[in-house]
Specification:
Layout (H helix, E strand, L loop, with lengths): L34 H11 L12 E10 L18 E10 L14 E9 L2 E8 L12 H8 L10 H10 L4 H8 L13 E2 L4 E4 L5 E10 L8 H10 L3 H11 L5 E10 L25 E10 L4 H6 L12 E2 L4 H18 L76 H9 L2 H13 L6 H14 L1 H12 L2
Antiparallel strand pairs: 1-2, 1-9, 2-3, 3-4, 5-7, 6-7, 6-10, 7-8, 8-9
The structure holds NADPH dihydro-nicotinamide-adenine-dinucleotide phosphate.
């Protein structure tokens, strides 16, 4: 039998009555001395924290990554140290544009964020279900996101803003092609791939660095809804992803993904026909084949949605020895902006929350601050600065990563210089079957409803450069609307 628990105040005192307030007589009024009533109402007023500006609506679970192939020649990261090694993780999937109450089955890019609790600290891979993104320069991120959110006057989403921006920023059309393809509306988080999207690096014990891309391929198969099917589902439930993922895990049907990497030797980055650090580009598989790494499985639902999925804080700044950054400008900006978003949303010590806390020892000299509940972890009250003579935690040069080679003149480089916005979307368009292409055209046309003609024409001009078949296809789909 469940233990009978005494209801208490937050200060631990027993609560004698949780149904009736203290009043002067049965008809009221209230007395201000009924502090527990005030406490209840005040707590309720503070139940919400700022929702994420992007990726507000999410679903997730705990699981493991099990290594199936040895890649320790590329990296000293302990997570990859031996075949059979298992590391715990939490995953959170999300839509990008919708708010916390948005419907799950909307056409959008999906976030694919993973936090691996490794033996040498947390590694966060904060990716998407697409291998590229809409931009290659972080200067454009806030403007791009504004076009996905609500119009300041109508408070409605604005297809005009989206297409105005995309048609003025043709580097976005690779990602727009994926968004408007079947993969823009997966039936559940279990039926889509995940990608690190950025170029990162791996480095090994000999101090050698290679550039790397991370891929997680669904073992459930790709499944998608058409716009019409999506609309029908949303008419029945706005929570289809939560129901599917939570339900599968409760039923013991644990979704899996196969993890792969692509590797590019440092030197080869100089000789590619494309910029390997450009977030709007993939690395072609034939030149950079997928190397298997392991199997990711999700097998445990969170106990408390808010504590675990609303407060889980992923940041590309969380890397571990053996994994490194790259010159990718957008990655470099996210190293700052994600951790900053968490400091704002969750507070200074967000990394100490149970869901974010590393499973290995954490010893640092950051002091005080709001909600510091963990005191000092330096082993001595006198070790509250560094260096010190009181056996406080110390740096360890054996973890120094090899230098990241950088040269060049500091300047603002035009984001289009030396960049080809059309070849890779063409490769994607051309690998689709005729039926997939038809759906791509009609989804693209449907998203243009209400957009002024000159903006549509500007967009079609770019599509013609990708492929005349592509622009012709959209044109005829527009006529059928
Ligand atoms: P490949 O033929 O070797 O690979 C094609 C890739 O496209 C596969 O990974 C496949 O994923 C994926 N794919 C198939 N349909 C879609 C879709 N509707 N939306 C997004 N991805 C899809 O060719 P390349 O490596 O030369 O790449 C050609 C084009 O494929 C690229 O320009 C890019 O647009 C796209 N692509 C490439 C990826 C890469 O890392 N090279 C990754 C994803 C897409 P799967 O195997 O899981 O079915």
């Amino acid at each position: 039998m469940a233990e009978n628990r005494q209801l208490t105040t937050t200060a631990g005192a027993p609560i004698p009555d949780n149904q009736n307030s203290i009043t002067a007589g049965p008809r009221g009024p209230l007395l201000i001395q009924d502090y527990q009533l005030i406490e209840k109402l005040a707590h309720q007023n503070r139940e919400r924290i700022p929702e994420r500006v992007v990726h507000a609506k999410g679903w997730g679970a705990y699981g493991t990554l099990t290594i199936t192939n040895d890649i320790s020649n590329y990296t000293r990261a302990l997570i990859f140290s031996e075949v059979g090694k298992k590391t715990d993780l939490i995953a959170r999937f999300s839509t990008v544009a919708g708010e916390l109450g948005a419907a799950d089955h909307e056409r959008d890019v999906r976030g694919f964020a993973l936090k691996f609790y490794t033996d040498e600290g947390n590694w966060d891979m904060v990716g998407n279900n697409t291998p590229v993104f809409f931009l290659r320069d972080p200067y454009k991120f806030p403007d791009f996101i504004h076009t996905q959110k609500r119009h300041p006057k109508t408070n409605l989403r604005s297809p005009t803003a989206m297409w105005d921006y995309w048609s003025l920023s043709p580097e976005s059309l690779h990602q727009v092609t994926i968004l408007m393809s079947d993969r823009g509306l997966p039936i559940s988080p279990m039926h889509m791939n995940g990608y690190g999207s950025h170029t990162y690096s791996l480095w090994n014990d000999s101090g050698e660095r290679v550039w790397v891309k991370f891929h997680f391929k669904t073992l459930q198969g790709h499944e998608f809804y058409t716009n019409e099917e999506g609309a029908r589902i949303v008419g029945k439930t706005r929570e289809g992803y939560q129901e599917a993922l939570f339900g599968a895990i409760e039923n013991g049907e644990f979704p899996q993904w196969r993890m792969f990497i692509q590797v590019m030797p440092e030197k080869e980055a100089e000789n590619q026909p494309f910029n390997p650090f450009d977030l709007t580009k993939v690395w072609p598989h034939k030149d950079f084949p997928l190397i298997e790494v392991g199997i990711m499985e999700l097998n445990k639902n969170p106990e408390n949605y808010f504590a675990e999925l609303e407060q889980v804080a992923f940041s590309p700044s969380n890397i571990v020895p053996g994994i490194g950054f790259s010159p990718d400008k957008v990655l470099q900006s996210r190293i700052f902006s994600y951790a900053d978003a968490h400091r704002y949303r969750l507070g200074t010590h967000y990394e100490a929350l149970p869901v974010n806390r590393p499973r290995c020892p954490v010893n640092h000299y950051h002091k005080d601050g709001l909600m510091n509940f963990f005191g000092q972890s330096t082993g001595s009250v006198d070790a509250y600065y560094e260096p010190n003579s009181f056996n406080g935690p110390q740096e360890d040069h054996s973890f120094l990563e090899p230098p990241l080679k950088i040269d060049g003149d500091a300047a603002r480089y035009d984001r289009h210089d030396g960049n080809d916005n059309y070849t890779q979307p063409r490769a994607l368009h051309d690998l689709m079957t005729l039926e997939q292409q038809q759906r791509l055209y009609s989804n693209t046309a449907a998203s243009m409803v209400g957009v002024p003609k000159d903006i549509i024409e500007r967009a079609l001009g770019h599509y013609t450069k990708i492929s005349p078949d592509y622009s012709d296809g959209i044109r005829s789909a527009l006529k059928q609307l």
